[in-house]
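Predict fold of Alpha/Beta hydrolase protein; 289 aa.
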Amino acid sequence: MEPISFALIAAATTFTTGALLHEIQSNLIYPTKHRNENRHQVAPLFAEDGIPFCETTLTTEDNVKIRTYVCKPRAEKEAKKRPTILILHGNRGNTGYHSKAVSKFYHELKCNVVLPSYRGYDRSEGRPTEPGIKTDAQTFLDYIKRHNVLKNTKLIVYGRSLGGAVAIDLASKNEDKIDALIIENTFVSIPKLYSQDYYLYPLFSAFFTQTWSSEWSIGEIKTTPILFLSSGADRIVPQEHMKSLYELSKTTGIKKWMEFPNAKHRNTFHQPGFFEAIQEFLSKALAKK
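Predicted 3D structure, encoded as tokens:
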């Protein structure tokens, strides 16, 4: 076989393998089945719960239309007194999974709530990728900061699971715009998370296109207060990931660890003391900013 032919075959094989692995990664990390479940339940639940809301369409810098719910009191004076919380959902969820949390944040913690959908989720256009979701998160933040009512309110970014990685990345690039960060059951990186469950993944680490390396990004957060909410019985993202992120964080702001020993990956917010822990953290963190 001529060397050039062998090189071409090797290159084609590498490209095909890489493309296949990219597709497998995308399906594992952003599963289609879960991206649109419960999406029609949000608005009726907000209405039933007495939460004023509107749904807004934004256009990203790469021309993808993404959507977000904004929940705030109708009276501007009241809305301006509240902090605003941006909720970033996980990979197997969408806005429909957070309606109960929104109710707690709005009614009990007295927050304005921004609840967006990444590209490819719910009614947002496009297909989810790491660069794309990072662009979406920045678009949501920029929207809040130019909103005529929300722009001068204290801003909390809260992310769970994949949303925690999105939140860490966003906070690392926008410390001057974010007053507090809350992360729940997130991971140090995608390769390290999946290498625990799929023994062949380390062999193909060069082909990882979705890395979400929070272990690096969290070190870039210098002063923002951070609350770590961790489930002790999490089998999807083992607690060691959250412990590593806590240790890697060097923020000079408040750094608080809250553990729920019997909680699993998806039921942390049902645990006694969950929202009380958030309220206590915010009362201190926002007072110092």
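The CA atoms of residues 222 and 251 lie 4 Å apart.
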